[in-house]
Write a structure and sequence with these properties.
Nucleotidyltransferase, domain 5; 6-stranded mixed β-sheet; globular; alpha/beta; Ubiquitin-like (UB roll); 27 strands; 17 helices
């Protein structure tokens, strides 16, 4: 019996040979092509949709596929890549809506001005040429010159540079640029490289990796680059990746390897854009949630997924780049900021540093919206933090027509309450493909204002203007019909989608409320609310408040700060004082486990309403609700 099959992926034209019985998703991973797989191949999200050229070449339709795909889609050959097994040679089409496109990502973020004081220094040395009356070793000659010229004693050195040292000294005519990290000699070059001193700050998000190339002599930001986190193919949320990594050691190594490869890709692109050498990058600072932190360091994430969710390490880490296979100077220092708890990581510490709430007299709140939303409340006296399992719904996961903020995604929309006519704007002005998170929030708020959904989130049964219909036992509201403005399918919002957003927004509001309750303050006591995360900057604040995603704060107290975590990582890159502040802030923060609060279940259930079961908590919306 034939055990091998050949599959061709279109429109890419990529062929691959695999084993009979392998899933389409497995084969896509092997080709290096990209496809959405928010649940990591567990047949839960329904986003890895493909079209099979010859249905008889594949395994039978599964229950999961019948749940996620309509009968019409199945009749047209649609399957889920994670469920469909290949039995014979065939052609598979990866449709546009299933691809990971080029995202619209906000990489800028608020950041306080800091004193330029990096750990990395580059010094010019003029060395005495050895002769028979002066036979000091090359290394000793450098140490003596450091002491005489700069009054520095450097007992440490990178072993790697010893193999290059003799040639560098002699080829440069004994005039060299010496690079130190603290008091450790990490590089020796010809003197013309004296001004080439670079560092990279890296923000490892669950869905994206952003790198910031900085000149460590001037503190100037040179270039910014981001890519999708390549781990996305193994699961879009941290729980999916914890599950995958915990299955066996090989899976953990694979997630670490693809993450390092992704970071190296960012570094390479930064260097190409800035026309600098990766070898002259001498420091890397890294932030990310605790799961990304552990996977970056190749640490087990198993116990992050099991109560009481304890990390392997929480303190700051310094490690040489060669230990992690980062393609910068092999002796470069990699500084990983501290984490606070199992689900409040180094990115939250960076948020604190960037917003400066740890030094402020004002009571401030930080809400860093993402797959795992962090809420931080406090000032220079005390700080509390919690993690809200808001899930990836705001990035399009578990939403029928949801997608990330890529070209063709609807990012803004309004609905006329009388005619139900939908007006929308897509990213790049392209034909509509689906809804990104900001549009989903707009949509629910607009439908609520139009009376199509009630305060409990229930969509009305009665069809109005041909907009409401039932498909596979789920009510849906048609936003864009197939063929309209070039749309290749109907774009809808379903009852199930509304419930997903209710769960996500309830998690965030409940986190904010419980922290305020623990600190014995009211919304009006909060002087500043920093909304962080790339998604936050595209929010319509009125609509976010209308659905009850954030507490009822005055608009003038809310500040969108973009990628605050990235800004904090950049601050730590150029300032040793900031690193000390970060370590101290992490120790100072009191972590609050929301699920242990006696009011959590009641508060969460109450926050499922639009905007809340107790409308008195939103006095500014009294005319709307």
């Amino acid at each position: 019996m034939r055990e091998r099959v050949v599959v061709k992926f279109e429109p890419d034209g990529v062929k691959i040979e695999g084993r009979k019985g392998e899933t389409v998703l497995d084969l896509i991973h092997k080709t290096g092509l990209s496809i959405r797989s928010e649940c990591g191949g567990r047949q839960v999200c329904g986003k890895c949709r493909v079209i099979v050229g010859t249905p008889e070449s594949c395994s039978e339709i599964t229950q999961a596929e019948m749940f996620h795909l309509t009968k019409e889609e199945i009749s047209h050959g649609y399957r889920l890549a994670c469920a469909c097994k290949i039995l014979n040679d065939t052609v598979i089409i990866i449709p546009e809506e299933s691809r990971i496109g080029v995202r619209s990502v906000l990489v800028e973020g608020v950041g306080k001005e800091v004193k330029l004081e990096p750990y990395v220094r580059k010094l010019l040395l003029f060395l005495d040429k050895p002769d028979l009356s002066d036979v000091r070793s090359d290394l000793q000659r450098i140490r003596d010159s450091l002491r005489e010229t700069y009054n520095l004693d450097s007992a440490k050195f990178s072993f790697e540079l010893l193999s290059r040292l003799p040639e560098v000294l002699r080829d440069s005519g004994w005039k060299v640029a010496l690079t130190l990290w603290k008091d450790k000699i990490i590089d020796v070059e010809a003197s013309d490289a004296i001004d080439e001193v670079y560092g990279v700050a890296v923000d490892i998000g669950t869905s994206k990796i952003i790198g910031y190339l900085t000149d460590l002599k001037s503190g100037k930001l040179l270039e910014v680059c981001f890519i999708e986190n390549p781990q996305i193919s193994y699961g879009e949320d941290v729980i999916s990746r914890i599950t995958y990594a915990s299955e066996n050691v090989e899976n953990l190594r694979r997630l670490h390897k693809v993450l390092i490869e992704g970071i190296n890709k960012v570094i390479s692109r930064l260097c190409i854009k800035a026309k600098c050498r990766a070898r002259n990058i001498y420091e890397v600072t890294v932030v990310g949630n605790t799961v990304m932190h552990h996977l970056f360091l190749s640490l087990s994430t198993k116990f992050l997924g099991l109560s009481p969710y304890v990390p392997v390490v929480s303190e700051p880490i310094n490690v040489e780049a060669r230990e992690l296979s980062l393609k910068v100077n092999p002796s470069a220092n990699v500084h990983v900021l501290p984490v606070i708890a199992g689900f409040v990581g180094a990115d939250a510490v960076a948020d604190i540093i960037a917003t400066g709430i740890h030094k402020s007299d004002e009571l401030s709140m930080v809400v860093d919206i993402g797959t795992n939303t962090e809420v931080i409340l406090g000032n220079k006296e005390s700080i509390m933090a919690s993690s809200c399992a808001s899930g990836p719904a705001f990035e399009g996961a578990h939403i029928k027509c949801g997608m990330k903020a890529v070209t063709g995604a609807i990012e803004r929309l309004t609905i006329d309450p009388k005619t139900l006519e939908v007006t929308y704007k897509t990213i790049g002005g392209s034909p509509p493909v689906g809804l990104c998170g900001s549009a989903v929030i707009d949509c629910i708020a607009e439908l609520f204002k139009a009376g199509i959904i009630d305060r409990g989130g229930r969509m009305m049964d009665q069809d109005i203007h041909g907009k409401i219909r039932i498909v596979d036992s789920d009510r849906e509201f048609v936003l864009v019909r197939k063929g309209e403005d070039g749309a290749k399918r109907d774009i809808v919002i379903t009852q199930r989608d509304v419930r997903e957003i209710q769960l996500a927004k309830s998690a965030i509001y409940t986190g904010c409320y419980i922290l305020m309750k623990r600190m014995k303050v009211r919304p009006e006591d909060v002087e500043k609310c920093y909304v962080a995360g790339a998604f936050g900057n595209y929010l319509n604040l009125t609509n976010a408040k209308l659905i009850g995603m954030l507490p009822d704060l005055s608009p003038d107290k809310i500040e969108f700060v973009g990628n605050a975590a990235g800004a904090g990582a950049r601050m730590a890159l150029v300032s040793k004082s900031v690193r000390e502040e970060a370590a101290e802030a992490a120790r100072k923060v009191k972590y609050v486990e929301l699920a242990l609060d006696p009011d959590f279940q009641l508060e969460f259930a109450s926050a499922m309403y639009l905007p809340h079961r107790d409308v008195n908590r939103f006095p500014s919306l009294k005319d709307l609700v």
